[in-house]
Design a protein that fits this description.
It comes from Nitrososphaera viennensis EN76. The protein is an alpha/beta fold. It has 12 helices and 16 strands. The longest helix has 21 residues. It binds manganese (II) ion (MN).
């Protein structure tokens, strides 16, 4: 059965879609102002979750609303999100490549507005500031296609939404969540660095590396240039430093298609990917686990037990 959000998103016209975007924006502005969601803190681009019952992690969607709606269905999202003690974290890359970026944007804004304390929306490199190069940013064209003359204003609202998205999420004592990877520059005050990365993205590399980096099996150096032409490939020493600084056990990220999930950096890093429309040769998966289960997770292989692959 098609969920209610699926039906609403498929029929939304320009004014209804703008309204949903604006509701997502105001929910994000509110939590920035309060500096908090239930059981956690919000400091600029950083969300820290201290107190929760269950955690779901959904990774790159790339306009694949069909897979998103299947995942939401499997999680029984209405029930899951009705408790502010349950957290659903999205790792970013909502748009581009798939056929329904608009449906995915509609869904995440709708969910954030309806359940502001339960939903964390992170930023992917496809939601980066416009100063960064987009290799394949087709969102403006899909908007023009669907909304005609109103598309330009709506795209402007989407860019305003992107600026408010979270850059890193720490699940206390356990997980460090980012979209791309871990920054390679010397780690000073990491909270401050992430919190201000949006404001300072033209002055330092923090935002670029969080959104674009990829883990690689480098043992003799911290990083090497990325084939993406932006961001860096980083080695396990970088991951080890970040886990120690943030007092977490596993780093979780998306950004690269894989067969459900992939483990790197001697079990310190888990990659997860949640769409398949634009990547038919890979698998889609998500994570769902109770706090009790997560409290006993000490590495990526332990976390992988809670990866659910879509059949
Ligand atoms: Mn990405």
């Amino acid at each position: 059965m098609l969920s209610q959000i699926a039906r609403l998103s498929a029929t939304a016209g320009p004014s209804e879609f703008s309204q949903v975007l604006d509701r997502g924006i105001s929910a994000l502005e509110k939590e920035q102002k309060h500096g908090a969601i239930a059981g956690g803190t919000v400091t600029g681009g950083l969300v820290e979750i201290h107190d929760y019952d269950n955690l779901a992690i959904i990774s790159d969607l790339h306009g694949d609303s069909k897979t998103l709606f299947r995942i939401l269905d499997e999680i029984n999202h209405e029930r899951f999100l009705s408790s502010a003690r349950n957290k659903m974290v999205f790792l970013g890359d909502y748009v581009d490549r798939g056929s329904d970026s608009i449906g995915v944007l509609y869904a995440i804004c709708h969910l954030k507005h309806a359940h502001p304390d339960s939903v964390v929306l992170m930023r992917g490199n496809h939601e980066a500031p416009s100063e960064f190069p987009f290799p394949s940013h087709d969102l403006p064209y899909s908007m023009e296609d669907r909304f005609g003359a109103g598309a330009k204003a709506i795209y402007g609202r989407a860019l305003a939404l992107f600026q408010l998205l979270t850059l890193a999420t720490v699940v206390q004592g356990r997980l460090l969540l980012v979209h791309g990877g871990l920054p390679t520059d010397a780690l000073g005050d990491w909270r401050q660095a992430i919190a201000t990365a949006q404001k300072r993205h033209l002055q330092n590399r923090m935002m670029e590396e969080l959104l674009w980096n990829d883990p690689r099996p480098l043992e003799d150096e911290d990083w090497e240039p990325s084939w993406r032409g932006i961001g860096r490939y980083f080695g396990s020493a970088v991951t080890k430093r970040w886990l120690a600084a943030t007092d977490t056990k596993v780093a979780v990220r998306g950004h690269e298609p894989c067969h459900g999930y992939r483990v790197d950096h001697h079990g310190m890093m888990l990659t997860i990917f949640s769409c398949r429309e634009a990547y038919p040769n890979f698998g889609a998966a998500y994570i769902i686990a109770g706090k009790h289960d997560l409290d006993s997770v000490n590495d990526a292989d332990g976390l992988a037990k809670f990866v659910k692959k879509l059949l």
